[in-house]
Amino acid sequence: MIVTVTPNPSIDRTVSLGASLVRGAVHRVTSATSEPGGKGVNVARALGLAGLDTVAVLPAGDDDAMVTALRAAGVNFRTVPVGGVVRTNLAITEADGTTTKLNEPGAALDAAALDALTHTVLSYAESASWIVLSGSLPPGVPDDWYADVVARLAGAPCQLAVDTSERPLDALAAGFGTAAPDLMKPNAEELAGLVGASPEELEDAVAQGDPSPVISAANQLIERGAKTILVTLGAAGAVLVDPTGSWMAAPPPITPKSTVGAGDSSLAGYVRAAVGGAEPPRRLQMAVAYGSAAAALPGSALPAPSQVDVNAVRVFSITPSAVRP
Fold this sequence. Notes:
Blueprint: E1 2-5, E2 10-17, E3 29-37, H1 39-49, E4 54-59, H2 65-73, E5 77-80, E6 87-93, E7 99-102, H3 111-122, E8 130-134, H4 145-152, E9 159-163, H5 166-174, E10 183-184, H6 188-195, H7 199-207, H8 212-223, E11 229-232, E12 238-242, E13 245-250, H9 262-275, H10 280-295, E14 314-318
Parallel strand pairs: 1-4, 1-8, 2-6, 4-5, 8-9, 9-10
Antiparallel strand pairs: 2-3, 6-7, 11-12, 12-13, 13-14
Helix pairs in contact: 1-9, 4-5, 6-7, 6-8, 9-10
């Protein structure tokens, strides 16, 4: 079983425009969709499409629209009762695939709800093969909640993945001396923030075919106690670094339609490959294939296996001598 945890779920509303977004202008929407979302929910949806046994854990009331949407989508889920309603996030996609997101803060969790969520996650420690902790934290949840859960699951037989940003990510990295997840999935900006680097420098280097600054930054986290770092780089692909080596994957050419859920799909692809016993290069290949397939789909649609072309992704092993100190 793969358990995904989404402390701050959302109804993801995506509207598509036929032209470029202009601030202050009136736009005509060409299409609109609403899906149950939040990063962990997206991972569960993508893995469910691949036939894997998954459960999405999230806070939501029994009569919340989110619960109705999850049932309609055929997602296996477990909720923790909460007083507020699940937020709605808006994504605006332009004809060239450019995506603008407007995310609400989410319903606050009181102490009782947070305690119930924590104990629900911990209850899966023995039965899950992977626990995936994803997304922002809602009001009322301390920044170090992910770090605390990772520490409390240290020594459990399940694998842990964390995909978050800003202060929760900083708190997670600060706890590497105590415990670290088996996988972290930052983007270039998040990775740069963790090591005090320039995100522009990392992105420019990759655009010029030089992944060494990204690999060097990821290796700094490995030296601090991290286990595996999957750095997603948008249209440039992704980099995977662990104590045994580093790899770069180049995606196939696609026509981007929406980036909503692309990073979550990459994480789902990695976990799918890992569950199947794949070695790191193949895990990276699957991750990039899934992310590319998601970006080629409209709205917040997530790819089915038939839409994922793994063999179209090129993977290169990066030798230590090729990495800038």
